[in-house]
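Researcher: Next entry in the queue.
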Amino acid sequence: MVSTDRVVLFDLDGTLIDTAPEMHLSMNALLEEEGLDPLPYESIRPHVSNGVMGIFNNTFDETPKLGGRRFNRYLDIYEEHLGMNAQVFPGMGEVIGTIESKGIPWGIVTNKSKRFAIPLLEKLDLFDRASCVVCGDTTDKIKPDPEPINHALLLLNIKNSKNSFYIGDSKKDVDAAKAAEISSIACTYGYISDHEKPESWDANYYVNRPIEIINILTNVSE
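Model: Structure for this entry, 222 residues:
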C-alpha cells in the first residue's frame, strides 16, 4: 500500500484518453445494422463523457433503454473496436511521466465499467502504471457522488486529500471532487458540448491542454 499525502487522479474518457473516435465508429456500425444513416463525428464527441446513454439520448428519437437490445448490441460492437484507435491526449504522456518522476502515485476514477476500462488501459500500457483504477462498477455509486474518489483515496492510503487532485472534463467530475474535498482540475479540451460553460463549474483550476497540468502540479506546494 502506498503511503503518501498526495495523489493525482484522472477521469478516463475525454481527460486521459481520447476514446471518441472509436465510440463514434461503433455507433455508426450500429446505425448501419439498424438501416439508419451514419452520424458525423462532431455530433457524437461532445456526449462521450456521459457514456453510452449520453450518446444514445442525442442519437435516437425514442427514449433509449438501459440494458435494452440496442444498448447491449452497441456495447458488443464497442468491445470489438476497443483500443483500435483510442489514444492518450497529446501531452498526457509527458504529464504522467512528470508525475511519476516526482514519486507521486496516480490513479483513474471513471464511470466506465471494468469490462471496457481495464482492457483499454491494458492496450495502452497504462493499467500496470496506475496505482489504482476505480471503475463505474467498483463502488455502489458513480460520479458525481464522491464515493469513487473516496474509494481511490482509501486504496492509496491518503489520510489528508487537501494536497491531491482530481482531473476531469465534466461538471460531474468537479462536483465529485468538491464533495470528496479534493482539488479539481477541469479540462476544457475534453468532451464538452457547445451549451456547456465550464467556467460555471467552479473548478479549482482549468487547463486548455494536458501539458498545462504540469504547471499546476509544480506550482502547488507539495
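Model: The two ends are 20 Å apart (CA to CA).
Researcher: Noted, moving on.
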